[in-house]
Amino acid sequence: MAMRRFTEERGPSTDDEVWLVQHRPVYTLGRAGDPSHILEPDGVPVIHSDRGGQVTYHGPGQAILYVLLDMVRARIGVRHLVYSLEQAVVDLLAADGIAGARRPNAPGVYVDNRKIAALGLRVRRGRSYHGLSLNVQMDLSPFSRIHPCGYSDLEVTQLADLGLDAEVDEAGKELLKYFFDCLDHS
User: Fold this and answer.
1) What is the per-residue pLDDT across 80-108, written as a single tens digit (0 to 9) for each?
2) Residue 59: which of 89, 34, 28, 101 has the closest Cα?
3) What phi and psi, each to the nearest 5 degrees, are found at residue 94?
4) Eight-state DSSP code of residue 158
5) What residue ranges of the chain have pLDDT lower than 50?
6) Which residues touch 46 (CB under 8 Å, ≥6 apart)?
7) Would you give the DSSP letter of residue 74?
8) Separation of CA 9 from chain center
């Protein structure tokens, strides 16, 4: 995995990076992931991941930010990083008049109790990798074949269903701006 290799090989002066990507359809199970939360993969590959969290789906139409940060050098903790990632989504939504919210003990961002952004990180030796996925304009049906984040009754949504006509790359770049702003100002 490129993120893990980057993190393991980086030195004290290696620049931090944030990767903005999309994936082919894939289910990922986090370190604590329970395979019973995958109900019917229907041909979608299932990958075991070393990030936190349970199961989620990644696919085309979803903006994913992988944050490869030296948190010690940047003097930020895990809570600050999680807050900054979630706040970036909240701010992006607020710019279009949509109220996004956090849930205690359930990382991510929700709109009307439906999850729009999932978060899963790994921190090793003070360096982070993995990150956040934002549903922009995608086929949400694969989420119906899992218990997203380990919750059987969790519904998901996306920007397109909220009336926002955004391209994935465009939404990802806006999300990056909000994320960097949150890191700089909180």
Assistant:
1) 999 999 999 999 999 999 999 999 888 99
2) 28
3) -60, -35
4) -
5) none
6) 26, 27, 28, 29, 35, 38
7) H
8) 23
- Convert 8-53 into a string of H (helix), E (strand) and C (coil): HHCCCCCCCEEEEECCCCEEEECCCCCHHHECCCCCCCEEECCCCC
pTM of the shown model: 0.96
Q: Which DSSP symbol is given to 54?
A: S
Task: Answer whether 16's CB lies under 8 Å from 74's CB.
Answer: yes
Q: At CA 117, angle to CA 74 and CA 87, rounded to 5? A: 45
Query: Three-class SS of residue 182?
Result: helix
Residues designated catalytic: 149
Tokens of 25: 């359809």
Give the amino acid at 122.
R
Q: Which two tokens stand for residue 169?
A: 């790359």
